[in-house]
Automatic annotation (TrEMBL):
It is found in: Membrane. This is Rhomboid family protein. Residues 65-223 form the Peptidase S54 rhomboid domain. Belongs to the peptidase S54 family. Gene3D superfamilies: Rhomboid-like. Keywords: Hydrolase, Membrane, Transmembrane, Transmembrane helix. One of its GO terms (cellular component) is membrane. SUPFAM superfamilies: Rhomboid-like. It comes from Hyphomicrobium denitrificans (strain ATCC 51888 / DSM 1869 / NCIMB 11706 / TK 0415). GO terms for molecular function: serine-type endopeptidase activity.
Length: 242
């Protein structure tokens, strides 16, 4: 009997993450306008909390800690949620299958936190809220860069879906020397920096928090090795394009 591969091969950790994002969005949509505004601000990451205004903002001092994580669960509208969900399924599925659910969750949260902190560095005292899982998802993109091109070099791209743990990981030094990783990273940064010159309006309202995206991506690229427990097999053959 022929074994049939599933059309969608989504790990439980990714499905659980997606379920949380959807549940939060639905719960917020059922609130009154005043309740919705209070809860969004209480869950959002707001730099002004760390400039002495925490007690004046929804959530108070407690939100100065909790919002570092809760801001990742809130999305401005269905388009914002749908966009992040698509990237979560694309990159998160590969990463979760390689890391396992617990390491994947820790990696994602740390990536989102890194993105929020870089946003704080560039915007100290800003009262505008930052919401969305984009920082965490950017970290997933950065992490995948550490083994994506090895799979391509070995002509084993199918392993990204079937067995990502078997793909050897580039060391950080190798990644920073690989022209494809560097080019992909520069494109990612460049696209996000377009927000500075006017691009970045997304969905119904709000601009792209490019700082959070870049912070998450850099964390993912640099810190992936600390979370990756996959057994490293033989290195890929040298690329004919090197």
């Amino acid at each position: 009997m022929t074994k049939r591969e599933p059309i969608f091969n989504v790990p439980g950790g990714v499905l659980a993450t997606l379920a949380v994002l959807i549940a939060v969005h639905v719960a917020l949509s059922l609130l009154s306008p005043l309740q919705y505004e209070w809860w969004v601000l209480a869950l959002a990451f707001i730099p002004a909390r760390y400039a002495g205004f925490a007690s004046q903002l929804p959530g108070g001092d407690t939100a100065s800690i909790t919002s570092l994580i809760t801001h990742m669960t809130v999305h401005a509208d269905i388009m914002h949620l749908g966009f992040n969900a698509a990237w979560l399924l694309a990159f998160g599925s590969v990463l979760c299958a390689r890391l396992g659910s617990l390491r994947f969750l820790a990696f994602s949260i740390m990536g989102g936190l890194a993105g929020a902190l870089l946003f704080l560095v560039f915007n100290p005292g800003l009262a505008a809220p930052v919401i969305g899982a984009s920082g965490a998802i950017s970290a997933m993109m950065g992490g995948v860069m550490r083994f994506l091109f090895n799979a391509i070099d070995r002509r084993e791209g199918y392993l990204l879906r079937e067995q990502p743990r078997s793909i050897p990981r580039m060391s950080l030094v190798q990644s920073l020397k690989d022209r494809r990783v560097v080019l992909a990273s520069l494109v990612f940064v460049g696209v996000n920096l377009l927000a500075i010159v006017g691009f970045g309006k997304f969905g119904e309202s709000g601009a792209i928090a490019w700082e959070a995206h870049i912070g998450g991506y850099v964390f993912g690229l640099f810190a992936f090795g600390a979370f990756d427990a996959a057994t490293q097999n033989t290195a890929p053959p040298a690329s004919e394009f090197d």
